[in-house]
Amino acid sequence: MVVKSFIIMPNKRYNSFNVENFLDDADFLRYVKHNNSVDVSFWDNWQANIPENLASFKAAKLQLQLILSDQPKIATSNFRDQLLADINISIDTIQKAKRSKTIRLIVTSGIAASLFVVAFVSWFFLSTVTVKSNFAENRLVHLPDGSEIQLNANSVLSYARAFKWKARREVRLKGEAYFKVKHININPDQIKKGELFVAITDGAKVQVLGTEFNLKDRHNTTTIALVKGKIQVSSNKTGQSYIMHPGDFIDFNPNGNRVKNAVGSTNQTAWLSGKIILNQTTVSEILREFEDLYGYKVILDSPALGNKKIDGAISIKSEESLLFTLKNILNVDIQKEGKTIYLKNR
Amino acid sequence: MKKETNDFDLWQNLLNGDRLALNKIYERFLSPLYQYGMRMLQDEDAVRDCLHNLFVKIWVNHKTLKPTDNIKYYLISALRNSIINYKNQENRFQKVDIQENDVFDLRFTVESEYIKKEEQNQKVLQLSEAMNKLTSRQKEIIYLKYFEEMDYDEISKIMDLSKKGTYKLSARALEALREIMNVDKAMLLAILLVAKR
Lengths: 346, 197
Description:
heterodimer; A: Phage tail protein beta-alpha-beta fold; Jelly Rolls; twelve-stranded mixed sheet; three-stranded mixed sheet; elongated; B: mainly alpha; Rna Polymerase Sigma Factor, Chain: A; Butyryl-CoA Dehydrogenase, subunit A, domain 3; 69% helix; 0% strand
């Protein structure tokens, strides 16, 4: 008995199809993949006629089902939303930068914390553990006392191998890191020596009991941003000390003097989520950060470009996305030669 | 009920400078782009970067883009370029031949929990790994053809192959698969019938 086939299906010679032919057919693929009622009806009817190549049909269907068996990879809604937000922030930043006509000299907002200056290299008689992060690499360090330090790129952290002992919890930093210090003090009225945590850089020394802060020491400038807790900071060069509260930040210039300015702490820790927040930040500052983190030397076609101010946020997660964003903000072409990058005006 | 904008109009809105059109395009096409990206790169952070750059680039250049009625094809094509650039960047200091290190994540997924017999479990595991006998290019073409339902014309342009090269690659991939699948047809059938999605 012949069953009438649906007119919707193209007039193909399915009866003479071999396995390869079926696998190449878009309509067959749609049928196996989506199982639409129209397709299913058609193919059920086709099979009911017991065509000679029914075996080929079945084999092809089986193979196709196996090919299609892989589980789909689905983005979480968090990923979707976050990415869209980042995309829009980048676009806003680029558009704002393009529109801005004035070129002014701006000093980057910075967070500096002065830490007590105590560092004497001769202090380290015992062997030291040194952790280094390369360019474009962040590292997480777990200290023996349970404290956590997130190192930004191109930074060095060192501490006495016998850290866990009585004396003091002390680490040295070159570069930038975010500290989560474990609080071990029991009696606040009687602070024992080992309960104090000390972080030392070239420019400053920070003393804390248990807190979270960002510490940055590059190009002879020390910046400290306090997120949680209370800390005491002193300038290595002047000996002047300061108490900081959450949200505070201190900036020490190469002379060890405190610079007066006012920018929020959140900006200084943006690097933890792969961004830098720009608040009237000059292009020179951005490029210097890039150099610090990725190890390049950047040369601008016109130095005046370095004075341009930018507001917004840019991703520093990969050098590619950072360069790409800069390329668009400044309207330049990028030329790389080894470890040098030239930004040429278009 | 609001009718969904077709590809051509949506893209045209973008070309005309409608920022919301960009968001709409993102909503509509992120899934296939994410999936393709993850299969090419396996690293979500890398995929995020490439997708970020792709969409920012599209907006920055929106005035110079050409109209199209097939946005998905355009985006996957552009994403592929973005991924290649990304890989070139990453490999720059590693001095590794990019082609050799390419991995395309595609596999057979078979539910082994339904198969009781030990011997059959073995075969099931073999099958799961079998797809790895294909090269990453072969897996990619299978993915574009069967998962994204693209035709040879589109695939040849996306993968930068000649029309002839595309046919050859596809044939070889299917041939390789067939060899794998000739293992035990009855067994295959049993697995697929049992492992219902």
